[in-house]
Design a protein that fits this description.
By secondary structure, this protein is of the alpha+beta class. Helix content is 27%, strand content 17%. It has a domain of 98 residues: Glutaredoxin.
Amino acid sequence: MPPKKPGKKKKDVDWSADENFSKDRSMIYIEHTYECPIFQTKADECGSFFTQRIPERKFQLVKNRNGRQVPRDGAFEIGFSQNARTSEHLLWSGLDKGPPRRDKFPVDYEALVPDVNRILKKFYPDKAVGVGADDEDEEKEDM
């Protein structure tokens, strides 16, 4: 029997450290339980969605604080920050949702885009992307 290969351990990166920091890299923080593989799949889908939806921006997906956080049972929460040195904002919590399990996840990640753009504008108004003139008019009407 061949020797067992050690699992590929991801290097823990401190994104707020000077050598890794970029004010153009937004952080997506997801806390997800390990009770079912769908939670990990949905976390990866969320990161991919924002990368494709807002290609002008860099995103870094951080799941369960890079393994340092023990997730709560049934947890699926999405947090977002402008960059690694700004505060985290909760975009979605499925903690108190379900059963069924599908209720723990956003039906459509597109619904989170306005909140992401609001956070991007809050810290760096010139860095908000994916917002057309129509979106800005709608926000003014809401005020």
